[in-house]
Amino acid sequence: MMAFLWLAVLALGCFGVGSASAQMEIFEAAKTGDIVRVEQLLESEHSALDYDVNGSTILHYAASGGQAKIAALLIARGADVNAANKDGFTPLHNCALSGNSETAVTLLGGGSILYARDNNEMTPLHLCGLSNNVDVAKILVGHGADVNDKTSTLWTPLRVAEYKSNKELIEWLRAQGANE
Question: Quick check: 168 and 137 in contact, CB under 8 A?
Answer without folding.
Answer: no
